[in-house]
Structures are given as structure tokens and as C-alpha cells.
Amino acid sequence: MTSEHGGVRRRDSAGRERNRATGRNRTTAAPSQRTRAADPARLVAYEVLRAVSADDAYANLVMPARIRHHHLDRRDAGFATELAYGALRGQGSYDAILARCVDRPLSELDPAILDALRIGVHQLLAMRVPAHAALDQTVGLARAVIGAGPSALINAVLRRVSAQSLQEWLAQLTDGLTDDVKIASITESHPEWIVRSLRQALVAHGRDAAEITALLEADNAAPVVNLVALPGLGSLDEAFDAGFTPGPLVIDSALSPGGDLGRLSSVREGTVRVQDVGSQLVARALAAAELTSERTDGEERWLDMCAGPGGKAALLAALAAEQGAWILANEPTPHRARLVEQAMAAIPEDAWTVRTGDGRDVGREHPESFDRILVDAPCTGLGALRRRPESRWRRQLSDVSELGPLQRELLDSALSAVKRGGVVAYVTCSPHIAETLAVVDDALRGRTDLELLDAGAALDAVSLTGKLDAGNAGSPLPVHRMTAQLWPHLHQTDAMFLALIRKL
Ligand SMILES: C[S@@+](CC[C@H](N)C(=O)[O-])C[C@H]1O[C@@H](n2cnc3c(N)ncnc32)[C@H](O)[C@@H]1O
């Protein structure tokens, strides 16, 4: 800590600056000097929170750029990431605590001050940072980037926060409440509508509603980064030499010990890729599903209808290349279609083609043309909240119903485009009933030419353990028992939903 972060000088300085400050309470120091006063790791975390709340940025995209900009070493980068992501995930709990420590509604605070406070609270209550360092450093950061007046307010508020542990605060905040959803929303830092949706999803997918706490807790934990070696193209040897461990659920996968993945040449070359194990499992389950379709031209034709940015398309294309099949990877957004091409770059070119277009047109343009189709539908991503720390606060209940028509049209298009005897995998990284079971129900309604394959068994068949317990065997409705749902708290994957539909 530099001397200007020391207690006496800070208080003196804060007093002088506050008296002198303009209406916006900005420090009079030059911006470059102010920035230098802040600890770089905390500054990066703060800048990420600001970008998320002020510019609607995605934390996982901003973070690497800020880390590079401030030249953080590996340790500081880890600290900044834990701080920013933790503050974002914990925002619901932290804001409830802050509301008890600030003398006005949080909505009346300058958003920059609120972000600095959130960073302070996470350090004080959830990181192994000594309280005095959390306080001094956050106040120093605030003084450097916001101004002396606000830093005095932040100091006073964080002192109040530091008077109790997180558990004590949560007990106090939930004291007297009887609504389980409200309690979970505060203690596990999720919007109430998401708590309610996830609890309903657990029950509809045949699990116990009491698992909700474990599920919400899993959303709040930093996910381990998973790698996949593209079949026939990539090797994990380099990753294992670098300390990665074999993934326990699926072949050719590895778990990262942390740190910059760019140090692996196989990752740079694209033969080893970052991919959640849930995504690997559903892609492999489709590739291995039993077909009864007739091959007219000798090779299987596959389709990835919603391919961008290309994670599953790359794995499917590598599997297709191994099996002598070919895949069309479709994506409507041109820049995402380019990402698909980049993802495919390491795979022999005769195994794949990228199409830039609307998946809803494919069924009409190419009826009964494909043996295997993946519909990895645009969805709310409620199953990947641990990976996108800000998304739980940005998503709204209305998103679920807005996505419904598109999800249904894409699945209908796929069911037109699949050959008789071919299989469509309907996948979402959300377990929400409206995006999963309801979409499948609607697609099957009144159709006698479609049958559900046992998706749980299909996942088991491509897993290393052979017993993932992802099938929805306990679902209240028999038809739903053929679908499968992976869960972060059970499988340490994103909550991927899978239905396998065969056209008879
Ligand atoms: C869940 S993401 C797919 C993720 C991808 N399969 C992967 O593993 O990397 C859904 C994708 O669907 C695309 N999409 C949106 N509208 C679409 C449409 N009408 N037809 C096809 N794809 C669409 C989105 O642009 C997005 O890239």
C-alpha cells in the first residue's frame, strides 16, 4: 500500500477534497495520477463492473481486455476475476446488505459509487482479504477513480458492512420472512423469478424441489474450465503436462487448474477447445444416436441449425469427419457465422460447410435432407448463470415467452429437414420448462410420425461413468421421462436440456 493510502492522510485529504469538490464530487487530481493510486487488480474489477452496469457489457468479454490493458500478472488477474465475478454474482445479497447501511435508496446513489461499494462488500464478506485491506484499498480505489467525497461515504458504509459476517447479515435480512423464494433470493443472490423458475424446473424434470439451494449455490461458484480435444485431431497430452486433469464424465476432456489457456499451443491451434462438458455430452449423444434413415448417397448429412459461435459445431464436425459424414453449420448472424468458420478451421474442409441464414427456412428449402440435426436453440441461458455472472440481473421473465415462438419454429423447421429415420436433438442451456419440455410437447402434439428416444440413456452411452442420472425418469408426465436434464449442482456442467426426436 502506498503512503497516500494511509489512514491519517486519507482522512485529511478526503476532507479537503470534499470541501473543494464541484457538484459531481470529483477529485482535482489529474486522471493519470488518480488511476495510479488504485490497486490495479481492484481497478480492473471496478472497470468491469462499470462496463457491465453502464454499457451493458458482458463481464467475460470485458475482463480479458482490462487485464491485458493493465498488464496484470496471473495472480492479480485471478484476484480481479474473482472480485468482479463474485461481486456480480453476489449483487442481490450485497445490495440487500448495502440498503441497510446507506441512508438513502440505492437507486439514488451514483451508480459508480454503488459498484465500488459492491466490490468492497465482496472483499469484506466473501474473500479472504483482511478487513482493513479490503476497506483501505476500496476507499483508495474510490478516491482515485470517483473522488474524495464519495470515498468518505464509501468508507463509512463499508465500516457498517464490516460489523457483521455474511452469515450474520443474511440471518438478519431474512429474519421474520416466511416465503422460501424470497429467502433464497436474498441468501443465494438470484432474482425471485429465477428462483421460482428453477424450482419449477427441478420438479418438472423429476428432481426434488429441495435441491434448489444446492442449484443456486452451484450458480454462485466459479465454474472449472473444461477442454475438449477434437476427436481425431487434438491431443490433451500438452494440457495434462501443464497440470490439467482428465475430465471424469466424457472422453477427450480435461479440467483446467486455472490460468491463461493461451499458453497451450493446441488451444491456440484450435484442435483443443474450451467447452463445457454438458455441451460435449449432448453433441456426442446426437452423433451416437441410432438412426434408421436410409443413406441415399453413402454419407450421412448432419445439420447444426443454430451454430454460432461454433462450439458444438466444431465437435460435431470433427466427429462427422471421423465417421465420413458431412455437416452444414447454419447461423444467421454474419459475425457469428464467421466465428463458426474460425471454430472449424482445424477440421478438414470437406467435412463441413457454413451457411449464413435463418434456420427457420432450412426445413422448407431442404425437406427430409439430414440424418442428424442439432437445434441448440437461442434461450435465456438460465442454465449457465455461473458462467455469465451478470446475466441473472439482466434477464427478465418476459424473455422466456419472447423466445418461445422462435424456439418452436426452429424445432419445426428441423423436424421438416430431418429424413425419415433421422434424429433431431433439441438442446437448450436453460432448464426452464417453457423453453424445454413445453417446446417439445408442442412439437410432438398431434404427430404420429415422431418418437422420443431415451435421452438419459443416450447421455449415459457417451459418458465415461455410464450412469449420469440425467434422464428425467422422475418427471410427473410420462412423455417427459424420455428427455434429459444436466444440472450444475449434480454434474458440474451447465444445465443443458436434451430431447432426441426421431422421425418415423
Ligand atoms: C445457444 S446459441 C448456439 C450455441 C452454439 N451451438 C455453440 O455450441 O457454440 C444460439 C444461436 O442461435 C442463433 N440464432 C438466433 N436466431 C436464429 C435463427 N432464426 N436461426 C438459426 N439460428 C438462430 C443465435 O445467433 C445463436 O448463435
TrEMBL record:
Record's keyword annotation contains Methyltransferase: yes
Designated name of the protein: rRNA small subunit methyltransferase B
Domain SAM-dependent MTase RsmB/NOP-type: 198-504
Keywords on record: Methyltransferase, RNA-binding, S-adenosyl-L-methionine, Transferase
Pfam families hit by this protein: Methyltr_RsmB-F, NusB
Gene Ontology terms describing biological process: methylation
Residues bound to S-adenosyl-L-methionine: 306-312, 331, 358, 376
PROSITE patterns: NOL1_NOP2_SUN, SAM_MT_RSMB_NOP
Biased segments, Basic and acidic residues type: 1-20
GO MF, one example: methyltransferase activity
Family to which this protein belongs: Belongs to the class I-like SAM-binding methyltransferase superfamily. RsmB/NOP family.
InterPro entries documented for this protein: MeTrfase_RsmB-F_NOP2_cat, MeTrfase_RsmB-F_NOP2_dom, NusB-like_sf, NusB_RsmB_TIM44, RCMT, RsmB/NOL1/NOP2-like_CS, SAM-dependent_MTases_sf
Annotated stretches, region: Disordered: 1-37
Active-site feature positions: 429
UniProt-listed CDD domains: AdoMet_MTases
